[in-house]
């Protein structure tokens, strides 16, 4: 019988100024399929980097950053507002398209061109392409099920669905703080980016002794932190190895041109990278062909039509928690 006592799982959260212990409900949802001990789980917490509240304008059509949580210089503030508008508008347009019954996946290429233009200003890139950004946005939505039956590790799952939850208007992705939030500061400020990544690296350094089998389960903007941190550790901590990288509801497709590493290659210290996207998630999307993932899974949102982006952590979401994550970890 295979023992998994040396397995370690590191959680990494998205936006929302999370506090210590945020991963407890996640562990309670995933552990029935893993049956791990409490000490086999760790959480990376980067929310406290943002010590003050990030304040946004209330205008959805022209969102702006009124007060940043971390100090930004004037140039960074200008770039943050440009990027906030582009990202927020793209996500909101995508959400609206997904709600239409006749949505077929078509997507006007111009809707994300501003992201490419801003990336040039941020990084000094003289030329580039938004083929992955536009393609991924256009491929998403209610037709995620079209991935069913594809090879190369891609599949769709079906499981016992919970009853639809009562509508929770506050949980709907409608405003900048719900979609991009304080992470826009990460994208424009090298100082903030370093500080946020360091919170994950602190946890991973403790697991580089070669005596543990390590996995990361990252959600939302935390997938960006995970990806960039793992790329850094190739040089900073060459002995570190990660068996599994799980990215749930990842917006990597949206900000590829804003990353320090834009090639989309799999980090060299990662053995298996599995990406999961819930049907109708306006932020998450499959990552191929822009990123070198080993498995790109489209799953049900478990009837969580109000906040599909959080559906991965619903109790008894067996498609994600048992059939993808636990199956990959326990089959090693």
| Tally of discrete structural domains | 1
Based on secondary structure, the structural category is alpha/beta
Gap between N and C termini, in Å? 12 Å
Strand ordering within the main sheet: 2-1-6-7-8-9-5
* Strand residue percentage: 5-15%
- Residue share in helices? 25-40%
Q: What is the string of helix and strand elements?
A: EHEEEHHHEHHHEHEEEH
Average predicted confidence as pLDDT: 80
**Rg value:** 19 Å
Count of beta strands: 9
Summarize the structure in short:
The protein is α/β, with parallel strands linked by helices and 332 residues long. Helices cover 33% and strands 14% of the residues. The strands form 2 sheets. A 7-stranded parallel β-sheet has the order 2-1-6-7-8-9-5, sandwiched between helices. It has a two-stranded antiparallel sheet with strand order 3-4.
List the helices and strands and how they pair.
Layout: E1 7-12, H1 24-34, E2 41-44, E3 55-56, E4 65-67, H2 74-98, H3 113-123, H4 131-139, E5 155-156, H5 176-179, H6 183-188, H7 190-205, E6 213-219, H8 222-236, E7 242-248, E8 270-278, E9 295-299, H9 318-330
Parallel strand pairs: 1-2, 1-6, 5-9, 6-7, 7-8, 8-9
Antiparallel strand pairs: 3-4
Can you put this structure into words, describing what you see?
There is one protein chain. The two termini are 12 Å apart. A seven-stranded parallel sheet has the order 2-1-6-7-8-9-5, with helices on both faces. Strands 3-4 form a two-stranded antiparallel ribbon. Helices cover 33% and strands 14% of the residues. The chain has helices at 24-34, 74-98, 113-123, 131-139, 176-179, 183-188, 190-205, 222-236, 318-330; strands at residues 7-12, 41-44, 55-56, 65-67, 155-156, 213-219, 242-248, 270-278, 295-299.
């Amino acid at each position: 019988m295979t023992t998994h006592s040396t397995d370690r799982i590191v959680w990494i959260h998205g936006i929302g100024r999370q506090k210590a212990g945020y991963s407890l409900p996640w562990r309670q949802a995933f552990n029935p399929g893993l049956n791990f001990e409490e000490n086999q789980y760790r959480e990376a917490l980067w929310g406290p980097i943002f010590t003050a509240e990030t304040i946004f304008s209330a205008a959805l059509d022209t969102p702006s950053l009124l007060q940043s949580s971390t100090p930004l210089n004037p140039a960074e503030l200008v770039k943050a507002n440009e990027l906030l508008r582009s990202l927020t508008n793209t996500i909101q347009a995508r959400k609206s398209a997904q709600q239409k019954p006749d949505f077929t996946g078509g997507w006007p290429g111009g809707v994300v061109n501003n992201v490419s233009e801003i990336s040039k200003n941020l990084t000094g890139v003289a030329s580039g392409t938004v083929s992955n950004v536009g393609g991924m946005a256009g491929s998403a939505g209610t037709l995620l099920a079209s991935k069913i039956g594809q090879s190369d590790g891609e599949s769709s799952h079906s499981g016992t669905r919970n009853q639809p939850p009562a509508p929770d208007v506050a949980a709907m992705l409608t405003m900048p703080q719900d979609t991009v939030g304080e992470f826009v500061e990460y994208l424009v400020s090298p100082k903030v980016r370093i500080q946020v990544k360091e919170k994950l690296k602190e946890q991973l350094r403790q697991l580089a002794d070669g005596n543990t089998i390590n996995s990361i389960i990252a959600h939302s903007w935390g997938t960006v932190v995970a990806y960039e941190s793992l790329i850094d550790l190739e040089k900073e901590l060459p002995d570190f190895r990660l068996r599994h990288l799980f990215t749930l509801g990842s917006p990597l497709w949206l900000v590829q041109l804003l990353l320090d590493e834009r090639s989309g290659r799999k980090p060299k210290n990662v053995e298996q990278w599995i990406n999961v996207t819930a049907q109708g998630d306006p932020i998450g999307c499959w990552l191929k062909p822009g990123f070198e993932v080993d498995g790109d899974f489209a799953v049900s949102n478990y009837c969580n039509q109000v906040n599909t982006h959080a559906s991965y952590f619903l109790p008894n979401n067996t498609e994600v928690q048992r059939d993808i994550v636990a199956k990959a970890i326990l089959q090693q």
